[in-house]
């Protein structure tokens, strides 16, 4: 099993589009198709159902996706750790992120900028949920985290710089008539199947919002998803509407976004420890903040 095969599988699982996957990975569609077929041959089971019009994950594919993302993240980290030791770099900065498209699409360019300004510094990225991020920062396993503010606002000795403060968006497929609205109100969702981020894996602000919405729409059907990427897959199968903060939404062009008229905002930014005042860490954190604000 090769890294490129895992990358092709994960991106295709999230986009359900060979052309979009090829564009993201800078490959041809035939190359993506070949890597998926090779991976299925190695695993000895089918990951996708595909025809001329659509691509869908099989049940086995959905299960494999859950672990494949972590496998790839850990493997990438192991390679980066070993490479840093081999090259004798003077400093390694570990950045923890939540896996949002905003991060995945922009961090490569930001890291390249960091390496340009700090050529002797190696950058590692750690994919973590919000609880793991907080623990990693406070235990010095990560130097910098990209996180919602309420994840760390009660922690002592943490510096936080806001990147964006946003409300919630309704994310849906083009088949949902709500996509034609300029603003979605609470009553518009009364007959919709709603997807919310799992409150056990989400910042406190989103958990509070979920409880408020359930009080307003007690008869609605709710599904909890572990990430915006999982919501993306379900939305494309027309399984409902997801309510996601702007910073956490998918950037997939195949989805529709309409602002949700609800009194809820979530702050997202970059955080690091005051005691970790190494110039490289502070420089990286401020550079990340500046670059994301330009997005």
Walk me through what this model shows.
The chain has 295 residues and is α/β, with parallel strands linked by helices. The chain has 3 domains: 3-81, Winged helix-like DNA-binding domain superfamily/Winged helix DNA-binding domain (Arc Repressor Mutant, subunit A), CATH 1.10.10; 90-165 and 267-293, D-Maltodextrin-Binding Protein, domain 2; 168-264, D-Maltodextrin-Binding Protein, domain 2. The protein contains 9 helices and 12 strands. The chain has helices at residues 3-15, 18-25, 29-43, 59-87, 101-117, 130-138, 204-216, 228-236, 279-293; strands at 48-50, 55-57, 91-97, 121-127, 144-148, 158-166, 168-172, 193-197, 221-225, 241-245, 256-259, 266-273. The strands form 3 sheets. Strands 4-3-5-12-6 form a 5-stranded mixed beta sheet, sandwiched between helices. A 5-stranded mixed beta sheet has the order 9-8-10-7-11, with helices on both faces. A two-stranded antiparallel ribbon has the order 1-2. Strand 1 and strand 2 (55-57) form a beta hairpin. The model has no long low-confidence stretch (mean pLDDT 86).
